[in-house]
Amino acid sequence: MPLRFNTCPYCNQRIVFKIDEKDVNTSQYPAPVYIHHTSDSCGKTSTFYVDSLLRVSYKELEKKPGGTKTLKTID
Ligand SMILES: [Zn+2]
Fold it and tell me: What values do phi and psi take at 51, rounded to 5?
């Protein structure tokens, strides 16, 4: 399960999450997945779009339609 290092679009803190193909709708890329930043000081959920290699293409502040899962950050 690949680990992804990125930043939260709300607070710009570094985040880490694990993502797997089963976490996204593989019929369409970039595929949205919701990322819940579990930091006490943030706690916001945003939408990350990943390509077929599960690399983050771009992200949106809001929870956009089309995602199937919410992943919690692990760091
Ligand atoms: Zn955050």
Answer: -85, -175
